[in-house]
Every structure is written in structure tokens, then in C-alpha cells.
Amino acid sequence: MQRYWLIFAQTVTVALGLLFIILTFRPHWVTGSSVDADLKGADRHEDMLLARTQANATNGLPNGYLAALQRASRSVVSIEAVPLQNTAAQALSEQLQHDPSFNALLDRPSGAQEFTPATNVGTGIIFNAEGYILTNQHVVEGARALKVSLADGRVFNAQVQAVDPESDLAVLRIAATKLPVIPLMPRTAPLQVGELVFAVGYPFGFAQTTTMGIVSGINRNQLGVSVFEDFIQTDAAIHPGNSGGPLLNPMGELVGVNTAIYSENGASLGIGFAIPAHEAWAIAHALMEQGYVTRGWLGIEPQDIWPLAQSATESEGVVVARVLKGGPAAVAGLEVGDVIVRLGDAPVKNTADLLRQVAQVPPDTRINMTVVRGNKPRTIAVTIQARPRPR
Predict the structure, then answer these.
(1) Of 197, 262, 259, whose CA–CA distance to 229 is shortest?
(2) Rounded CA gap, 85 and 88, in Å?
């Protein structure tokens, strides 16, 4: 009896040992999964982690945003722009590099690379899986060559697809497909002052960097950055090189495109500005699909009323300083000195507000405008036309 028990114990021990070895070195023999299945399993795990992250972020749990930010960061790229040089100077520099007498004078080998053009650095956002990248126009303006580095380490030459100077946005394209597209914040969740946000980019050409802050303000305008301004203000640290990068919420969703900072020396003072995501998204797709942005146009030279206002009750509205001959406003009967106080059902606060509202009206749309003329309000119907494209 004791002999049988010893045999049974030895058999169980050997079986358990074999099972341990298999589970350690060949687990897929037991689970039946392949390498591809393992990778899919990892993706499923990441999805589960992201779902848990979003739940944690919603509940305010510490570090609940990590997985969401990691996923969003895959869609953030580095952009290096080599600026245009004087053609004659560039040709001379290349000729001198291969001149033996000149190289001997400098005591360096013939052909040595001495004339290295400076590069501008910026950040971009993948918004379409077929190689389309959104960034600021000022990042790529005047560049003779563009290099885009993806978060996965791949590097591509890029071409400018189209630019929109009036919003300081540009679309680039690289020869790559199936790229990770950054998620967009839903319209059902408007951004609020005090919300947590993250700025992702490549400041000063460093590796990808993430900083954290809050939404300090919304609807910021009259900054002189672009024609159409409706910025998000944030205290998340934004530096040179961050331009064109995303401002994200804790869900890893795009809420804005970092564009400008207020600074006396180029460093962050905690006052940064981002173009709202849905506005930037619409412009990006217009540039991708048709190469330009269609906006409404009134045909006036507007002026803020507040410098001319005699009381606080007159501080909102826009004075018509000039009416363009043959433009929509002239055809409708608008006159110099009229004060525009309402467009459709929306009040008009200032020049930036009027420009933004008119731009959003589809061309050939007839809309009522409330103006004050001679201290008396009147309604004027105007047919908005397409804004002339900048050259």
C-alpha cells in the first residue's frame, strides 16, 4: 500500500513540474494562442486599460489619465523645417565645400559639412490615417524641406498640402498609411474653465514632452495672432517647438491646437493659447479636401465700439468704419457709422466676434442684422458672400 502511494506522489510531482515548465516557456500550448493572438490580446488589454482609465479620470482618481495620454501621444509628431536660403549664397557655400584651396585654408578635409542650415522645430497632429498631419502655418512657412518624425521612430519627408494664413493652420502629408488618428473631444462636452488639460509636443526640439495645467479661459481674442481668434487659454507649459501640438483632456481627446504663448523672452509664463479642436478640425478637413477654407464675408472694415463708447452700456457692438463698394454690406444698404449689435439671433460683442460669426455663415445665406443708426435700431437683411481667399 505504501509503495502505491509513493508511485502516485511521484507521478503527481512530475506532472506538476511539466505543467509548470509548459506554462512558463510555452504558455500558448495550453491557451492555444499564437503570436498574433497574443498581440491582439495585448490590444484588448490596452482597450480595457483605456476604459478603466477613462472611468478613473471621470471619477477623479489619481493617474487615471495615463493610458489615455499614452494612446493619444502616438498621434503626435515632430516637425523639422529647413528654411529657405538665398540661392546664390547656398550655391557658393556648396561650391566652397568642395574647393581644396578653401578647405586647406580652414585646415579641414575636402567636402566637410561646414554650412549646416538652421532648422525650425514644431509639432503636428495626425488627423487622418492616410498620412495627413495638422500643424501651425508658422511652423512650416518659408521651409524648403520638411521632416516628420513619428512617435514610433519612423521618419518621413513631408509635403505641404495646403495652408490657411487666416487661422495659422497648415496640413502636411507624408507617404504613410494606417496611422493612429487622435480622438476628438465630442461637441456634447463643451470645455469649461478649470478643467484639467495636457499639452504634448517637442519643445526646443527635445523628445516628446507632456505638461499639465488647466483651462484658464475661453473665447480669448484680439491677440493679433490671426484674423479669426477664439482661443482657449491655458497655464500648461507651452514653449517654442510646441506649436501645432495638441491640448488634450484627461480622456486623451483633442480639445485644442497649441498655437501661441504670451512671453517676454520666449519661455513659458503660464499663458498659452490654443485653437479650439472643432474649429481646427473643420479647417483641417477643408484644407485636405479642397485646399482652402470657405468662409462667409460681409465686406466692411469693422472697428470696436468700446474705445468710442461713452458708457458701459455701449461697450458691445461693432462700428462700420468702411463699406466695400459692391460688397454684401453695400448691397444691403449698410452705411459708415452704423453699429452692428446683432447677427441673426446672436449678439455681437466686438470685431473678433463679428468676424467669427460671419465666417461661419455659409455663402449665399440671407441673414438679418440688427444695427443702430442715429440712436435708433433697425434690421437690415444681408446676403453673406464667400470671403475672398488670401493670396
Answers:
(1) 259
(2) 9
Q: Measured between alpha carbons, how far is 67 from 73 in angstroms, rounded to an integer?
A: 10
Query: Which of 142, 174, 206 marks a domain boundary?
Result: 174
pLDDT in tens, 129-172: 999 999 999 999 989 999 999 999 999 999 999 999 999 999 99
- CATH number for position 352: 2.30.42.10
Query: Which grid coordinates belong to 207?
Result: 523628445
Q: Enter the pTM of the model.
A: 0.73
Set of cell numbers at residue 292: 482652402
Nearest alpha-carbon partner for 130 in 85, 93, 171, 175: 175
Q: Determine phi and psi for 205, rounding to 5 degrees.
A: 80, 5
Give the H/E segment covering residue 13: helix 2-25
- Among residues 194, 182, 173, which one has the least CA distance to residue 125? 182
Alpha-carbon distance of 124 to 260, in angstroms, equals: 14
* 56-68 mean pLDDT: 66
Query: Cα dist. 72→68, 76, 159, 249 in Å?
Result: 6, 7, 23, 10
DSSP state of 226: -
76 found inside a domain: yes
- Write down the catalytic residue from 73, 167, 243, 268: 243
Query: Which is the catalytic residue, given 75, 167, 168, 268?
Result: 168
Residue 45 is among the residues annotated as catalytic for this protein: no
The answer to whether residues 166 and 77 belong to one domain is yes
Catalytic: 243?
yes
Among 144, 174, 204, residue at a domain's last position: 174
Question: Domain total for the chain?
Answer: 3
Active site residue 168: yes
Catalytic residue of the set 73, 75, 138, 239: 138
Three-state DSSP state, 386: strand
